[in-house]
């Protein structure tokens, strides 16, 4: 019981800490504390997170000094190095646990605490005098104030983890419109499969399916073209919504190819070619956090019971007939007068 504590939350003054509730387990009274550290965040009885931000300040100052010492010693000629260190290490560290304290961002004290945490790193980046104001440092460095950055990160947390709609500024965001990540811990290990691929060039034999995605003038299209012994037997194009990415178009191409393959009977050999290495690598990993990739894997696994499906990567713009044809169809798809598919938005667009 030495590791068990109770933290009375006195938010709103409705609970007097001087007379806390008494909780006992097996005749052992649970010790009352004013703050407790849980999952890297220090919680206090009033949910001010004062101690949490104070500890962050001390660690950030120490981290800034140590990183700048190493950077100056070995990389002194790279002027923008510490800015990269800030974005890659310091800022994510400062925003850790935003899901816990993000609701308190409406308090000026919390916002001021966050912005003050930026001072030491920003002084290092700008080489300014210590008497300069934090607001001026943020402008000179060209770095978003930490309280505004925290609101954006907390908004993503609400959309992806809590599945809540949010309002950010004057814009309203619905969580159903954005890609949600799967909790890999909820997927049975036996269902964590990978779909391998190779880099063999087309042989011109049997069924060869080519897919591609394209974005021209902010309009997005995907295509599939099927050859049987070098003779084109099928093609299909889809125009996606204008906010879609080329990556999403490439994924759509794979999905269209599988839809076509599902319509044909048992077949000895079906080759699926794409020039999107990133999509193939996503399929080749055992764990996936995106629903669409899990569905693609399961579709291939199911169809492989009666069809031999092999995925191949081919380089773009190398004169391969099938790939060039698929690219041509994808470009034509962008000019369609109507949108046929609206994929969920990527959080990179948030």
TrEMBL record:
Biological processes per GO annotation: DNA replication, removal of RNA primer
MF terms (GO), sorted A to Z: metal ion binding; nucleic acid binding; RNA-DNA hybrid ribonuclease activity
Reactions accelerated catalytically: Endonucleolytic cleavage to 5'-phosphomonoester
Enzyme class: hydrolase
PANTHER family: RIBONUCLEASE H1 (PTHR10642:SF26)
Family classification: Belongs to the RNase H family.
Name of the protein described by the UniProt record: ribonuclease H
Lineage: Eukaryota, Metazoa, Ecdysozoa, Arthropoda, Chelicerata
């Amino acid at each position: 019981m030495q590791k068990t504590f109770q933290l009375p939350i006195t938010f709103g003054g409705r609970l007097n800490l001087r007379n806390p509730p008494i909780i006992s387990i097996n005749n052992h009274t649970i010790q009352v504390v004013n703050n407790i550290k849980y999952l890297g965040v220090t919680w206090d009885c009033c949910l001010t997170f004062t101690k949490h931000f104070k500890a962050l300040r001390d660690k950030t100052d120490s981290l800034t000094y140590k990183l700048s010492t190493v950077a100056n010693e070995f990389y002194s000629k790279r002027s923008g190095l510490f800015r990269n260190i800030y974005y890659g290490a310091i800022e994510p560290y400062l925003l850790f646990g935003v899901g816990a304290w993000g609701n308190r961002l409406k308090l000026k004290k919390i916002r001021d605490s966050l912005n003050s945490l930026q001072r030491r790193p920003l002084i290092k980046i700008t080489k300014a005098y210590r008497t300069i104001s934090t607001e001026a440092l943020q402008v000179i460095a060209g770095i978003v104030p930490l309280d505004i950055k925290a609101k954006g990160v907390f908004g993503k947390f609400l959309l992806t983890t809590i599945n809540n709609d949010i309002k950010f500024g004057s814009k309203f965001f619905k969580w159903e419109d954005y890609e949600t990540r799967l909790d890999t811990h909820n997927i049975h290990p036996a269902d964590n499969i990978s779909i391998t691929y190779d880099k063999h060039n087309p042989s011109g034999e049997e069924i060869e399916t080519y897919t591609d995605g394209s974005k021209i003038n902010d309009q997005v299209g995907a295509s599939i073209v099927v050859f049987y012994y070098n003779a084109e037997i099928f093609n299909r194009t889809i125009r996606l919504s204008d906010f879609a990415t080329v990556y999403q178009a490439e994924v759509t191409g794979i999905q269209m190819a599988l839809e076509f393959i599902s319509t044909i009977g048992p077949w000895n050999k079906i080759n699926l070619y794409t020039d999107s290495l990133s999509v193939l690598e996503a399929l080749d990993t055992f764990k996936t956090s995106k629903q669409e990739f899990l569905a693609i894997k399961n579709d291939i696994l199911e169809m492989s019971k009666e069809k031999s499906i092999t995925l191949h990567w081919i380089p773009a713009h190398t004169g391969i007939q099938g790939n060039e044809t698929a690219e041509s169809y994808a470009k034509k798809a962008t000019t369609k007068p109507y949108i046929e598919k609206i994929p969920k938005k990527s959080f990179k667009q948030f």
